[in-house]
Amino acid sequence: MTAAAGGAVNTAATAADRDASRVPVRRLTVLYDAGCGLCAFLRDWLVRQPQLVPLELLPAASAEARRRFPGLDHGATLDEITVIGDAGQVYQGTAAWIVTLWALREHRGLAHRLSTPTGALLARGAVLAAAKWRGAQWGGRTYRRADGWVYDPGSGWRYHPPGCAGGACPTGP
Hints:
The chain is α+β, with helices and mostly antiparallel strands and 173 residues long.
């Protein structure tokens, strides 16, 4: 599987530095928005699929995700699916969906078809349709998570740390 489908991002080093084109992928970590019903449904579906490459599903922007992947833009991982390979490969958006399908026994052929230029257009359309549905589930209103992340359909995700109303801070003094 290559990053040619678009959306692959390198964080710590460039692909040339790691020779990522020849590094085998033995495990993938899928970051997903645990507060999204569609994302949770897809997480549950992925867990039930026979896997050729093991998938670990981890809530995006969680303490564990921040600890393990400090170089990622964790706000962006809530906007679009992000997948990290065991050798440091980072895939986002369409490429992340394609590499996730590539890891599944029954969907590897589909992943290869979607990794072509024409297939990538189809995959991007599916990703955009899912994003539109996901945005519509809040009725066009602002969606607020308890951890401080706020989604506004007009401006996307923003982080507003919890306040210290009345001098009492939820994270300590």
